[in-house]
Design the sequence.
């Protein structure tokens, strides 16, 4: 167990501790044992391509998956177990301790209820406010997330605001319960580039002000890199690499992470032909026998098919699930990464 | 020198929009005086945020919409009227690729049948040879013959987009208009499709009009780039020049806002405010309410798209004043 705690470099008692979390739909396993702890105040990025399980991890943790999903493992918030917790426990956690925002704010908001009332609902539920206090607090939250003319916007309907402003409303609503952790699932994917920059900036400011932890789920390595302290890269239902953000992007260890970064067109410097990762992500019901990335991996060998590689320490604070990635004393001085 | 492949000259497209049930109809200028040129074998990237009119520009270029002003020339001659036999003939030489390949494919036809369809419609090749032609086409975009037997839902997103590209190539077009062709794809697949488009262009000498909101993708494929804001081009020029040293404050903000992994420390220009509503266009320069360099003049006088000494076009009073100042100083 102590090894695990070292692995994630986190403090003795993490805020959220996920252990061996698996999820299956109709007997098909889509999440193969996720171990992840989030320390208080930390910003962790989950990155991966569609279907890798980055959203399912948190939907499962918060009991938001449909009944047909079967979940095993443990998700602990402080000392409370969330998997198979009673509804009244979850009701207090969701929105109160852990809030979640989604990609499309327009469909997450109720179109026929005024914004102030929707935010007020969260305030009444999680903070026990009523009457004038609700309105005053809602206005304060709207100001906090930078909605101009907040007092008037409380009476607006979602369709009267732009996508970026609606996402601010969602963030205000998530902050209503003063959560310890905000899980943001692709919060800027539906937004324009300049608005995305605004929202990322806002999330950073709020984190600095409130000391809230942030889990940012995104397919966009750039967004993750700008926002998070620590990054977990997921592939086919597993975490395959985790490291500090700066180190991960400077020296990715896992061939999949290397491939993802090489596949991104650069914004400056010489234009070169892109190095795509050949092939496709395997279907969850048709996974290869060993490492799920092996069929697409440039460093693939027979040993890779023998078994699923464990997420092992490769250097101080660096973990990768790859048997072809050598151990090193320090990732900074090693030469093996771009082999 | 023969005429450029595609010339879009000062086109405009207005939509009438009513605010509420009883509101007065307002003219929304989706595209407002845009001129572009696409050369053979070259790519013009069009970048902008939602509502900037980049997709409408693409549709105008293909003649899918009739411009309210201006005209479109394909190889030097005006596009024939929509729906005529002449138009169909020209349209076979200009094709479009959309963002969502599943929406662009018929779910009830196999991939091969769909790729074969253009041959049937335009009467290319003998009926018996068309299947073989279609298979060849599939192979040229990296699909296997047996994948042609499958239906769209049985393929992955990247494979579907390959099928759409194959179908677009069936009539041997000279021009491809790609509207966010890789935006719906995962990073690793996105790179495959970008490489495919670049290869095809080199092989067939296609002109590409490549529309995207993603600057990194635009830079990768484009020779020239046009930046659109609220229905107008605000900056246009050689791709590397434009993106490495943007002259227009909007381009500068876009470049700065583009998330690049590992460049965290870089100061970002975060624009305040939302992209403006095309129905309520700000006076003067449409960008001035969000612009950090805006002056009094920008609020009243709309800047013209004029060349700077380095050859690019920019519609910005401040950039031109600076260039003039430098010229006077030297």
Sequence:
């Amino acid at each position: 167990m102590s090894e695990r705690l070292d692995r994630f470099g986190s403090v003795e008692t993490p805020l959220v501790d996920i252990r061996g979390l698996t999820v299956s739909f109709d007997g098909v396993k889509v999440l193969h044992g996720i171990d992840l702890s989030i320390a208080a105040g930390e910003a962790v990025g989950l990155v991966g391509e569609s279907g890798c399980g980055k959203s399912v991890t948190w939907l499962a943790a918060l009991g938001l998956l449909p009944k047909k999903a079967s979940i095993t493992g443990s998700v602990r918030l402080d000392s409370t177990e969330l998997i198979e917790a009673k509804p009244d426990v979850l009701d207090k956690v969701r929105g109160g301790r852990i809030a979640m925002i989604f990609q499309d704010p327009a469909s997450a908001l109720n179109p026929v209820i005024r914004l102030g009332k929707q935010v007020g609902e969260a305030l009444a539920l999680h903070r026990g406010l009523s009457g004038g206090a609700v309105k005053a607090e809602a206005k304060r939250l709207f100001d906090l997330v930078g909605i101009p003319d907040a007092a008037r916007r409380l009476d607006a309907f979602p369709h009267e605001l732009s996508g970026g402003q609606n996402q601010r409303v969602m963030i205000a609503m998530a902050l209503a319960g003063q959560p310890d952790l905000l899980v943001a699932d692709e919060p800027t994917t539906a937004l324009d580039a300049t608005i995305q920059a605004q929202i990322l900036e806002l999330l950073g400011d709020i984190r600095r002000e409130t000391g809230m932890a942030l889990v940012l789920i995104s397919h966009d390595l750039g967004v993750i890199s700008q926002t998070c302290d620590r990054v977990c890269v997921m592939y086919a239902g597993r975490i395959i690499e985790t490291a500090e953000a700066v180190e991960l992007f400077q020296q990715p260890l896992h061939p999949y992470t290397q491939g993802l970064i090489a596949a991104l067109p650069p914004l400056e410097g010489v234009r070169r032909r892109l190095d795509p990762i050949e092939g496709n992500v395997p279907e969850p019901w048709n996974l290869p026998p060993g490492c799920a990335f092996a069929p697409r991996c440039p460093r693939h060998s027979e040993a890779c098919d023998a078994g699923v590689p464990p997420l092992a320490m490769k250097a101080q604070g660096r973990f990768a699930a790859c048997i072809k990635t050598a151990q090193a004393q320090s990732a900074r001085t090693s030469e093996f990464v771009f082999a | 020198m023969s005429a450029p492949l595609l010339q879009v000259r000062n086109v405009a497209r207005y939509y009438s929009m009513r605010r509420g049930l009883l509101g007065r109809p307002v003219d929304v200028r989706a595209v407002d005086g845009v001129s572009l040129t696409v050369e053979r074998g070259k790519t013009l990237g069009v970048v902008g945020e939602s509502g900037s009119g980049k997709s409408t520009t693409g549709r105008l270029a293909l003649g899918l919409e009739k411009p309210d002003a201006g005209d479109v020339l394909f190889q030097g001659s005006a596009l024939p009227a929509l729906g005529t036999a002449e138009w169909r003939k020209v349209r076979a030489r200009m094709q479009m690729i959309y963002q969502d390949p599943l929406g662009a494919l018929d779910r009830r036809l196999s991939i091969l049948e769909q790729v074969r369809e253009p041959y049937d419609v335009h009467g290319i090749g003998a009926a018996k040879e068309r299947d073989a032609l279609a298979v060849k086409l599939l192979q040229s975009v990296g699909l296997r013959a047996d994948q042609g037997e499958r239906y769209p839902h049985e393929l992955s997103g990247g494979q579907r987009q390959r099928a759409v590209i194959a179908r677009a190539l069936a009539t041997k077009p000279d021009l491809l208009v790609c509207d966010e062709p890789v935006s719906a794809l995962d990073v690793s697949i996105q790179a495959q499709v970008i490489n495919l488009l670049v290869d095809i262009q080199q092989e067939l000498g296609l002109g590409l009009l490549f529309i995207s909101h993603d600057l990194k993708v635009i830079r990768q494929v484009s020779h020239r780039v046009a930046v659109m804001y609220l229905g107008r081009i605000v900056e246009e020029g050689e791709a590397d020049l434009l993106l490495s040293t943007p002259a227009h404050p909007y381009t500068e903000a876009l470049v700065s806002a583009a998330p690049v992994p590992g460049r965290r420390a870089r100061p970002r220009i975060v624009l305040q405010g939302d992209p403006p509503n095309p129905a309520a266009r700000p006076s003067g320069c449409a960008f001035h309410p969000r612009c950090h360099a805006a002056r009094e003049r920008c609020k009243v006088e709309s800047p013209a798209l004029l060349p700077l000494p380095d050859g690019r076009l920019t519609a910005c009073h401040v950039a031109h004043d600076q260039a003039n100042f430098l010229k006077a100083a030297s």
Chain B has two domains: 6-93+173-272, 104-169.
